[in-house]
Amino acid sequence: MDQTHARALEALQPFVALATSNSATSPRFVANIVTNATSAPQTYVFAELLETPTIQALAAPDTPAEYKGYLKLLEIFAWGTWQEYQATPNLPKLSAEQTLKLRLLSLLTLATTTKPLTYQTLMNSLSLPTTADLESLVTTAIYANLISARLSPASTPPTINVTSVAPLRDVQPQSLPQMVTLLTEWESRCGEVVTDLETEIARVKANAQKRFAKEQAYRDRLDEAVQRRQPETGREGGNAADKRAGKSGFGRGFDRMAFGLGRNKREADDFDEDDGFASGDNGEAAASRMDIDEGAGVGRGGSRQTKRVVGRKA
């Protein structure tokens, strides 16, 4: 509950207690309760006081005419406006405190029903003669936490920009059926919106599932194609390697070397079956086919050369 509304309810409780007490028997006493309640500085709600049997008894036929108007006066303070008070005859005259209170309450109603809230509109509705009186009333409402507003006297036309209004006006009983109808229509529209949202959510989920299934099927086909391609790529890669080795001659040379064959005739002689290291039957070494002359000598260019004769047959 809003703090301002809670304080207003608390301020009304002493008057409710008086209206429900055994001493509230005469119309004059009840009229005094209404006067004091509407004049108190912190009382801005009056529905609870209006509901008491003592206050409602003012509408009885045997109530003196001078006191019957107090029931209507309290109703105007509860949910009426300053204009309604002026348009209703036979109402009690207001004190200065009651006049200020009713104008403040009327300002709350106008702030929620009138757009834009111009100076001239408020001055006509509240019977204020000057702009200074209007600005003083609005300032009082702001400091009492009844509204949050900003005065704009230099705008064209001069206006009051209200940003929030305290919930201090009571609901007129005759307006309850209309409010119930409006709330029922609002509830129906909310239900339709919720239904539409649920339908849209279901559609989005279904589309997401279809998209996921399609992507999963694509990934499965891609994986299957990759797995089927891998063995073929392995075989083609081996054949290509053999072909490249054959073209370069490295493969043939490597095979010939593995079987003791050189890449030319000289190397073939070097790897002949009689390699010069075999021993004869008498244990003496066979005539070696490898003569090494490592004598010192200087060839052309002044460099030392070593003569090596390898693999020559005797």
What structural class do helix, strand and pairing data support? mainly alpha
Percentage beta strand: 5-15%
Unreliable runs, pLDDT <50, ≥5 residues? 245-263, 270-314
Helix content: 55-70%
Helices and strands, in order, run as HHHHHHHHHEEHHHEE
What is the general shape? elongated
How many E strands?
Answer: 4
SS element count, helices: 12
Arithmetic mean pLDDT: 80
Rg result: 57 Å
Keywords:
two-stranded antiparallel sheet; mainly alpha; elongated; 12 helices; disordered C terminus; 4 strands; 6% strand; 314 residues
Q: Nutshell version of this structure?
A:
The chain is mainly alpha-helical. The protein has helices spanning 3-19, 27-39, 47-50, 53-56, 65-79, 82-87, 96-113, 119-126, 131-143, 176-248, 250-258, 265-270, and strands spanning 147-152, 159-165, 291-293, 307-309.
3D architecture notes:
This protein has 314 residues and is mainly alpha-helical. It is 59% helix and 6% strand. The protein contains twelve helices and four strands, in the order αααααααααββαααββ. The protein has helices at residues 3-19, 27-39, 47-50, 53-56, 65-79, 82-87, 96-113, 119-126, 131-143, 176-248, 250-258, 265-270, and strands at residues 147-152, 159-165, 291-293, 307-309. Helix 1 (3-19) runs antiparallel to helix 2 (27-39) and helix 7 crosses helix 9. The model is unreliable at 245-263 and 270-314 (pLDDT under 50).
Strand-helix topology:
Elements: H1 3-19, H2 27-39, H3 47-50, H4 53-56, H5 65-79, H6 82-87, H7 96-113, H8 119-126, H9 131-143, E1 147-152, E2 159-165, H10 176-248, H11 250-258, H12 265-270, E3 291-293, E4 307-309
Antiparallel strand pairs: 1-2, 3-4
Helix pairs in contact: 1-2, 2-5, 7-9
